[in-house]
Design brief:
There is one protein chain. The chain is an alpha+beta fold and about 120 residues long. The chain contains 3 helices and 5 strands. It has a single domain, classed as Alpha-Beta Plaits, CATH 3.30.70. Helix 2 (about 40-50) runs antiparallel to helix 3. The longest helix is centred in the first third of the chain and has 21 residues, at about 1-20. The radius of gyration is 14 Å and the shape is globular.
Length: about 120
């Protein structure tokens, strides 16, 4: 069953990729503050981004915030932004710094990943 789910994911991912090449894309950076580390925020971001077909990354910052960049179809980027403002179930997002960026062709088609620093968190 896992292979079946993976193949469905790949098919939808390829479909999303075709849509992205033909439509306008948005690239956004968010910095979330509040109780956002140690509460599953990165996992939450990855699962939501994958469902929305977004490419990008998320990471914990030394100052206790969570940073992320993602890009894709405008509606998906807006939905992701709304979800991150609400936060993961055990988080409490008190601030969001949002910056729209130029589309990064290096992110396109790479999926959404967690970035770790040298200490592994």
């Amino acid at each position: 069953m896992t292979g079946e789910a993976d193949s469905r994911r790949n098919v939808s991912r390829e479909t999303d990729g075709k849509k992205q090449r033909g439509q306008k894309m948005l690239h956004r950076r968010l910095c979330l503050t509040g109780r956002v580390q140690g509460v599953g925020m990165r996992w939450y971001a990855v699962t939501r981004a994958e469902k929305l077909g977004l490419d990008g990354w998320v990471r914990n910052s030394l100052d206790g915030s969570v940073d992320m960049e993602f890009q894709g179809e405008p509606a998906a980027v807006e939905k992701m932004t709304t979800l991150m403002r609400q936060g993961a179930p055990y988080s409490r997002v008190v601030g969001v710094d949002q910056t729209d960026l130029s589309v990064d062709r290096h992110l396109q088609g790479r999926g959404f990943i967690v970035l770790y620093d040298r200490r592994g968190w």
